[in-house]
Amino acid sequence: MQETNSLNSVRTLQKTAMTFKILHFFLIFLVLGLAVCIVSMNMIRYFGTKNMASTKSSRFHPCYDEMSSLECWIKPPPTLMHTMNDTELFWRATFVPGIRQYPYRRVPKMAFMFLTRGPLPLSPLWERFFRGNEGLYSIYIHSSPGYELDYSRSSVFYGRQIPSQAAEWGQISMCDAEKRLLANAMLDLSNEYFILLSEACIPLRNFTIVYRYITKSWYSFMGSYDEEGPFGRGRYSPSMAPEVTLEQWRKGSQWFEVNRELALRMVEDVTYYTKFKEFCKPACYVDEHYFPTMLHIQTPHFLANRSLTYTDWSRGGPHPATFGKNDISTEFFARILGSRSCYYNHRQVYLCHLFGRKFAPSALGPLLRLSSDVFGY
Questions:
Q1: What is the C-alpha R_g of the chain?
Q2: d(CA 124, CA 127)
Q3: What CATH number is attached to the domain comprising 138?
Q4: Does any domain span residue 156?
Q5: What is the structure's pLDDT at 339?
Q6: pTM of the entire predicted model
Q7: What is the count of structural domains for the chain?
Q8: Is the dihedral of CA 186, 299, 215, 116 positive or negative?
Q9: Most distant CA pair in the chain: distance in Å?
Q10: Which residues of the chain, if any, have pLDDT below 50?
Q11: Cα 361 to chain center, whole Å?
Q12: Residue 11 placed within a domain
């Protein structure tokens, strides 16, 4: 009997020891499982964030609300800043609806594109020009990389800078900047007319006249003319053939106005761009020849062959005359605005220039004093 009780006690102890051993292994397994889960979650969080950042840099989402409504497709991006590179931006900007008739009430807007190194010293004058015309215009500013414009929320220039890169005078990078402005402006489907300006440009007419003049025109305003001599045909390289021949070579002002169809052609082009990038280098100034030549070859019937921006080259040299405060007077603008005639929709008119350059910062005060009487704003 004693032996039986001893045997039962031993068996009981063995079962208890086995139970503790199983429990011990279970606890170890549980701890290891929790450790693996924690490590996995941290790895997913790290690599997931990394992948999201990578995706963000290469993808652009046109809709920011539910995709079930038309509104999310037609409204412009909520901010002009994005992480697309030029290849991605140009590709996105060249989306074209297959049906040309818009299924909503579309009010065509003018995109004012400022190509500038830094500040906009004449912005108070432009503020007057834009005042009261909301919904009929958009503003885009391409400045030197790293420069940030400082405007209050009440300014029309607030938040209107686009992602920029360095642009050098006479280099292909200047045309890259112009394409960048066009592409960013094209993301807003309401923009129909695109006007390139500099920080030294001013509006010579009020907004109503400018809007009517541009929107009623049968043509886009870009100079594209055949100039003989060293500063015209003399800049042509035979290496540009067969895409560009000497007879097709054109020259024109950098400051243009184009409609959406021509803007699309300018942004999507790679054929002519490659030739100009390789064979048009100083003393061939690419910004004077690339777009005038390309559009002359593709769509000459859409061009008015003149610029809307008045520029004075009479003083000679590689740059036009600059006007300071001592130049500004009623008589000065009378000479500019009534100095020549031109053709508008095949009719001879005396309203030829809507903008002027180059005006120095010192001219701002006199310009503000004269703007109401001379410019009508």
A1: 32
A2: 5
A3: 3.90.550
A4: yes
A5: 72
A6: 0.83
A7: 1
A8: positive
A9: 134
A10: 3, 5, 7, 10, 44-59
A11: 25
A12: no
